[in-house]
Design a protein that fits this description.
Number of helices: 4
Distance between the termini: 72 Å
Radius of gyration: 27 Å
Helix content: 10-25%
Number of strands: 28
Strand order of the largest sheet: 2-5-16-6-9-15-14-11-12
Structural class: mainly beta
Length: 420
């Protein structure tokens, strides 16, 4: 009998900041619940650089895993950051990132299949701040507001952008808000929690101002959605949902985890809401898949401070910073497209300043420049025929944009100090 290991599925974090695009700034580990599943189905976990592979023992006569997976199961993995500067060199909107109370969440239930066949575990081309989820404990408390109309108003503002049937949704919410304000709405609020398969796992009927406790301790940690809804009149059958909150119910503090990856696997005959390209079974046979989590390396405006310790030999007044830079064809979160290849970078001469008591000439790039783990050979910048150092990743600076650019909220700078 021939027994050998076959790859069931693999997960790879791709980041062009690194020369080989394997994201060494992240490590993937199975959760405790996942380890139990791996043992139950005789699966093996292999850690790779910036990812992992899950393999199974393949026999010539049959595949026991196919028969074992008679119900959908979720393999969950914790992503931890091994580089404290990861968000500095990753193109994710910094003001929207709040890892102390959120984590990045990736799943094959909400993946993005590219034309080249790449299976990405997030909606967009690359990871954004929208891929974060709020983290709540497995048991948490709350209190229903005395006046629910402000929450309904906030939902009204979002409904046009978020709801396919925007006009009907808007009309229902508008009627509900009027009924709440007039005191003619049903007295109860229906609070419900659904799992990632849209199955209701908890519900309660509350009155305004009433405290509540959501207890999911009998459930596995994972992604859930909590909804709040009311009836327009006490006799209505329809419950109008006015608030939805996606969250991750967790047993660990969110500050210890950078992100979570969940791969839902369903055996033959059970699609479990998994998009077809992301299903690991096809016609009863295992179909090994490679999932990706894709990042973009950040591009910042580079600001050089050029100084000479000798006051008798200041930097030349007519010298400028010039050079070329390598780009990667990325589209930044502000919508600016960067070319692919090498391009000439121009710098503006800003007002002189004083750094640690020394006069410094200041030069700012007119375009963002990508950050790379090994910039040598990618960027070449000179000042008065002298080669200049590259921007590091340990520290970046966010500044408001000038008033003449109100469409952009901020600019991100890398500052480089040069002593001649």
């Amino acid at each position: 009998m021939n027994i050998r290991n076959k790859v069931f599925f693999s997960i790879a974090c791709r980041h062009p900041f690194y020369a080989d695009e394997r994201c060494r700034g992240l490590a993937l580990r199975p959760t405790g619940a996942c380890r139990k599943l791996l043992r139950r189905y005789d699966l093996l976990f292999h850690e790779t650089v910036g990812g992992a592979k899950i393999s199974y023992g393949k026999r010539d006569d049959f595949e026991p895993l196919v028969k074992a997976l008679d119900t959908p199961v979720t393999f969950s993995f914790v992503l931890t950051s091994t580089d404290p500067h990861l968000l500095n060199f990753t193109e994710i909107s910094l003001p929207d990132v709040a890892l102390a109370e959120k984590l990045f969440y990736f799943s094959n239930l909400r993946g993005h299949s590219r034309r080249d066949g790449t299976l990405r575990l997030h909606r967009g081309i690359s990871v954004t701040a929208k891929d974060q989820l709020a983290v709540l404990p497995i048991i948490f408390n709350g209190t229903l507001p005395e006046d629910e109309s402000p929450e309904i108003t906030r939902r009204l503002a979002r409904s046009v952008a978020e709801t396919p049937d925007a006009h009907a949704e808007f009309a229902r919410l508008l009627d509900l808000r009027k009924a709440v304000r007039d005191g003619t709405a049903g007295p109860e609020t229906f609070l419900r929690v659904f799992n990632q398969f849209r199955k209701k796992v908890w519900d309660a009927r509350l009155t305004p101002g009433q405290p509540y406790t959501v207890d999911l301790s009998s459930r596995l940690p994972g992604r859930y959605q909590m909804t709040k809804g009311k009836k327009r009149t006490p006799g209505d059958d329809e419950i109008i949902v006015y608030e939805k909150q996606d969250f991750y119910a967790s047993t660990f503090p969110p500050e210890q985890v950078w992100g979570l990856v969940e791969i839902v696997v369903a055996g033959p005959g059970h699609d479990a809401g998994i998009p077809k390209p992301f299903r690991l079974f096809d016609n009863g046979a295992i179909r090994p898949l490679r999932f990706e989590i894709a990042f973009v390396n950040r591009a910042t405006f580079w600001r050089y401070y050029v100084m000479n310790p000798s006051p008798d030999n200041p930097p030349p007044e007519n010298a400028m910073v010039t050079g070329t830079a390598k780009t990667n064809g990325a589209t930044l979160s502000n919508g600016n497209a960067l070319g692919n290849g090498r391009e000439k970078i121009f710098f503006d001469s800003a007002a002189d300043t004083v750094v640690n008591g020394q006069k410094a000439r200041v030069f700012e790039s007119k375009k963002p420049i990508h950050l790379w783990e090994a910039p040598a050979g990618k960027h070449t910048f000179t000042f008065n025929d002298r080669s200049l150092p590259y921007a590091g990743t340990a520290w970046i600076k966010t500044e408001p944009n000038p008033k003449e650019q109100p469409d952009a909220a901020h600019k991100i700078y890398s500052e480089i100090f040069v002593y001649l």
